[in-house]
Amino acid sequence: MLVANRPWRELSEAAITHLVNTHTAIYVRDGQLARIQRKKDGTPFIDTLTETTLKGILARSMNFVKINVKGAVHCSPPDGMVKDILSLGDWPFPALDGIVEFPVLRPDGTLLTTPGYDEMTQLYYSPVPSLYVPSIAEHPTDEDVVNALTLIDEAIGQFPYENQASQANTIALLLTPLIRQAIGGHVPLALIDATRPGTGKSLLAETVAMIATGRKATMMTAPYGDDEWRKLILSTLGEGATIITIDNIKGRLQSASLDAALTSFTYGGRILGESRNAAYPQRATWMATGNNMQIGGDLPRRCYWIRMDARTAKPWTRGGFKHDLETWVPAHRGELIAALLTLIRAWYDAGQPPAQVPKTMGSFESWVKTVGGILERCFVEGFLENTQALQQDDDALQWSAFLHAWQAHYKQDQILSAILARDIITGSICDSDDDKKETLAALYNALPDDLTDIKKGDFKRRLGKALSYRVGTQFDESGLHLVKGDPDKRSGAVYWSVAFPETIEAVS
Known about the structure:
Layout: H1 8-21, E1 27-29, E2 32-38, E3 44-48, H2 51-61, E4 64-68, E5 71-75, H3 79-87, E6 98-100, E7 104-105, E8 111-112, E9 116-118, E10 123-125, H4 142-156, H5 164-179, E11 189-194, H6 201-213, E12 219-220, H7 226-238, E13 243-249, E14 252-253, H8 256-262, E15 266-270, E16 277-281, E17 285-291, E18 294-295, E19 303-308, H9 325-331, H10 333-349, H11 365-377, H12 387-390, H13 394-410, E20 415-416, H14 417-427, H15 435-445, H16 459-469, E21 481-487, E22 494-499, H17 504-507
Parallel strand pairs: 6-10, 11-17, 11-19, 12-13, 13-17, 14-18
Antiparallel strand pairs: 1-2, 2-3, 4-5, 7-8, 9-10, 15-16, 20-22, 21-22
Helix pairs in contact: 1-3, 4-10, 5-11, 6-9, 7-8, 10-11, 13-15, 14-15
């Protein structure tokens, strides 16, 4: 391409046309140009093009020439042209929704099995070259289904599940990445929980990841603070991750950003180290592992439970695994994927019947109907039958106790959050020698876990924010809840009270 004495728009148009005509693997994602790259371990990820990377792509795709006294000489792609291309915002390259490393079900029920870019799903299928998935029967028989379940059991059947529901939920977890694109709604987080360390929760998460990607799960730890959660989620989704594992949860798992991500089609925020915002598709399959996990906020309604109990003081000494899963699963990955696809195909061939047993999960109805339908068609019982036990939220129990302690001390009186904070601090040091001091001490002792650090200087602010977040929420069958009143005429601070449903009008 001759670059001398030509306007940038002309050079940019010619360069873009050449890239399109030569089928250069460039895509559009979140208003940016991107490409597919691989990490050292082979993990594919989405890489946003910079001036440097686009300049390199152009230099390798075509020759640039300028004219001087010596005649035509080669030159680098002009910086102005590269900047102009990146600034356009509208390009004739295909839109990229994400990357997958395994065959997936398209929304129309067909399978994406051809490596490369898929126009229907806007996915890039990037399997390892060694992956071979046996053919799937067009009309699977019951015998085909039983054989598929038997093979799946070879991989996940030896874990010490607490009940049948946990084992059924594990098969649901295995199915989820393969059907994610065919589900119109959201997908909940899988909690892989155990009574003791060494029970096998991380190994199960790795098994799920090995079947889906051919590699062990990339484990990440839960960050501290919601701002760190937001950064972690945004950077992970930005790379196009399909499996996200939060390993070895310590303490309470609670994050408004995680809550939002699980119920979002796209997740956005400010890019770390940059001045721009980004929004990425949220199509990942999420897992979290821990021992006797506590979950708070809205998370209990966004999770399903896989619970393990080896019923021994030293579960890491337990035998019983038929295979060394870290070697057996990768060696049989293609067969395991085919087995899972057989279950899915059997459901499609039966007319896609939804789950017959009523199971509700707000915001995740499509996932429940699809996965539940597949499992029922394939004779797997127990799906989500432990949900009620999981949703007996520890956070709700704590706030229920706190509001009842509030009601015992203040009755239906309206108070400012500053007065409440003062009384809680008083309750932390007073002796229970009369009824008033006893109820103050009970108020302090009933503080929810996330408010117990009353010595921190921001206690009043944290208390007010916690109250605002829970206005009107009923935490138990009594219906006792917070009521936000009118602001104080002098200070503008808000008055608060608690009320039972039948008394709400009297105290509002």
